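> @MW can you paste both from yesterday?
MW: sure, first one:
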Amino acid sequence: MTAKLVHLNVQSGIATVTLDSPANRNALSTPLRAQLVDAVERTAEDDSVRVVVLAHTGPVFCAGMDLTEPPEAVNGLPPILERICTHPKPVIAKLAGHARAGGIGLVAAADIAVAAAHATFAFTEVRLGVVPAVISVTVLPRLLPRAANELFLTGETFNATRASAIGLLTSAVPADQLDAEVNRYIGMLLKGGPQALALTKQLLHRSCGPTMVHDFAAMLELSAARFASAEGREGIRAFAEKRPASWIPTS
C-alpha cells in the first residue's frame, strides 16, 4: 500500500494541499508527484474550491527532485508546474521552511508565495553538475535578471527577505505571522469573482499552455543530457556520498 504523502483538505472554500514526506524533505518522489497532481486536479474540478493553499509538514517545504530515483523521473515535474500555473483558482504557496531546486519551481508556479522569514532558498543544480533547466520555465519570469544570473550560476543560499526583493516571493514574514499573512491573502482573493479570477489568471499567465509545453520539452532534453553526462553523474554521486565533487579545488 502506497503511503499517503499528500493530503487534501477542503474547508469553507479553501483547499489545503499538504506535502507530507518530511523524512526525505518532501522531495518530489514518484509517489509524491502522482499524489500531488491528483490533489491539484481535484481542486481544479471542485466548484466549491475558491482558493488553493500549497503547504507542507516538517522543516523543509520541498527539497526538489528525489535524487535516489532515475534521472528520467524529472519528466514528471512539468505536468505539476503546468497544472499549478494554469489552475483556474488562485494558488498560494505557504512556506514554513526551506525550498531547493525543483521545490522553488513549485513556489514560482504559484500565484502568490508567502514564506516565514527563516526560510532559505538555493538553486543547487550547478553544484551537482546539472542544470536548473525545467524549473527555469516557471522561475525566470519571476526573478530580476541580475539575481537570476547570480543565483542560478553560483548556487548560493539566499534568505526569504532576498527572495521577496527579487520577485520569487510575494511576502516574507516572521514565522509566528505566517498563518495570518496567508489568511490575509485568502480574504482578499475571496472578494474576487471566481470567473473573473480565472480569466485574470489566464491574462497573467499567457505564456502557459502551448508555449510552456514547448519550453518544458526543450528543457527536459537539456536536463536529461546533463544527468547522463560524466559531470552530472559525478555530482550526484558526490552528493549521495556527502563529499566534494571532483571539480572542486582542494587547495
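MW: second:
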Amino acid sequence: MSDLAFFERDDSLYISCEDLFKIYKIADLEVVALRGLDLKVRRGELMAIVGASGSGKSTLLNILAGLDQPSAGRAYVGGRDLLTMSAGEMVEYRRRSVGFVWQQTGRNLIPYLDALQNVEIPMILAGKAKSFATKRGKELLDAVGLGHRLHHKPNQLSGGEQQRVSIAVALANDPPLLLADEPTGELDSVGAHAVFDLFGELNRQYGVTIIVVTHDPSIAARVDRVVAIRDGRTSTEIFRRVKQDGNRAVVVHDEFVLVDAAGRLQIPREFLEELAIHGRARIALKDRHVEVLPESTREEAIL
C-alpha cells in the first residue's frame, strides 16, 4: 500500500517517510546523510529525534521543513509529496504549513523589531490584516509566557525568552507542524526545561504536531516518543506511557528496535560488541522469536 493510501485510510498519520536517502556532493566526494530512513508521525504527536552529530537528524528536519529535498525515497507531510512539489508550492508550504525554530536565536528574530513585531511579520507577509496580526501576536506571546514583554527587543530579553519568542514566531501562521532544531542548545538547564515544558503546553493547547531534534538526554520524560537515528537510519524508539501501580500512576518508558520496510533493523552496537559480532552473523527462528548469533568457525559454517 502506498503512503498516500495510508493518508486516505488513516487521517491520524501526518508524516510518512520511506526509504529516504540524501546524498550531498562536496567537491569530488559524496556524503550520504540519510541511508534508507523510515519514519511515521501521527497528527498532533509531540516527539523528539536524537542521535550523534552527523547521524542525519538535522538533514531529516530540513527535508520535512521544505528547506532541502531528498535524493531518493518518499516523503509525505499532510498528504503532500515533498519530492514532487514545485518551487512555488514549496514556498507556500514553508509559509503556511510548517514553523521552524533554529538553535541560534539570531536566525529566528529580527534584532531591530520588538517581540510583538517579530510575531506579526510572518502574518503580514502572508497577507493578514495588521489588526489580526496584532491580536494573534499578543495571544501567542501570552501563550509562551511573554505577554508582559511585548515591546522588548531581542537584546532586552534573556536567551530563554528569545527562544520563546522564536516559538511564537514559528506558530504565527497557525502551521499544523512545528519543527525545532536543537532549540535549547544555547540555553542553561533551567531555560532548556522551560522550553521543553512550553512545547508540551503548546502541543496540548493548539494540537500542533511537534518534532524536536535534541541532544538533551532528559527529553524522553517530556515527549510522547523518542526516535534515535544512527548512520542515517532510524534505529530505536522509546515510548512514554503511564501505568497504574496500586493507587499511584507510574511513568514507564518502553524501548523498541525499528524494522524498516525492507526488513532491516539496527542492533545496538553494545550488543554486537558483547557478542563479538563483526561483519556477519547467523539468525534463527526459535519459538516466535529470532536469535542473532555470532558467526561460527569456518568448519562449522561448512558443515
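> thanks! The chain is about 30% helix and 30% strand.
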